[in-house]
Amino acid sequence: MSSGFFQPVSGMDVPRFAGVPSFMRLPVMELDHPRISDLQLGVIGVPWDSGTTNRPGPRHGPRQLRDASTMIRAQNGATRVRPFDLVNCADLGDVGPNPADIHDSMERITAFYEEVLAKDIVPLTAGGDHLTSLPILRALAKDRPLGMVHFDSHTDLYHSYFGGTMYTHGTPFRRAVEEGLLDPKRVVQIGIRGSTYDDEDTDFAKSVGIRVIRIEEFFARGCADVMAEARDIVGDAATYVSYDIDFVDPTFAPGTGTPEVGGPNSFQALEVVRALDGLNIVGADMVEVSPPFDSSGGTAFLGVSIMFELLCVMATHLSK
After folding, report:
1. Model-level pTM greater than 0.85?
2. Domains of the chain (ranges plus CATH)?
3. What is the mean pLDDT of residues 53-78?
């Protein structure tokens, strides 16, 4: 049961446009805070997009997501879950990257998450481009490979870009499989679509046993059936959830670097997360929200709404 210290500021007490924004108006804590041992779930920003190969901008995502998250309230209207009553949550601030050095940034991110895990805190991350997931997984999967439920319009399984660049937002999960961070037979990718360069990524997926569910199959079968299969694939063992905002159709989420038409609507974007309830989720991320392409702020609000749904299913599992 969460204590009063970890409760978000209510919009009934302080207007949502007032005060310093934190994720969901939660308390902000450094890792050396006197009450850090009481924390169970930490929301973390990773303002970094050095893996982007076309339209940059997700480095500004955590700041916009924090601002948009002041609209999040204490109770999930659909599931009735009150996550801040179930577990102690806080905003752990940002991991400071080195925007001039990809490898140094990844080392900094991994080191931060190792410290988070050493304090028995489950992380929920706001990126950042999708390369952000790799250094996080290096910390979370240090002792055993994880399963993964991956919502995206792209597989991010390419070997390399531009003749040998191994670390981009299109390669993180190829590296994660190669490094033994993910058990490919416990990985499912949902929503894949759009034009492609070739079949290299999907051929790799088939060769190692990753289940790829294209958007056509998702719509033909329906959310409930697809998510039942996803739950069977990852099972009861430790699982990571990675959610690229470009999983959602750009009509509803235009603020991203690599949009693909023909995707789910904003309700379906929430529905798939609710279907994760009960899984052993040891970490999750929301990536690729890009403020320069999000003039209305609607993409960021959808992004933090998805993060709240993730927080609800994570808090429910942690409280049992």
Report:
1. yes
2. 21-318 (3.40.800.10)
3. 97
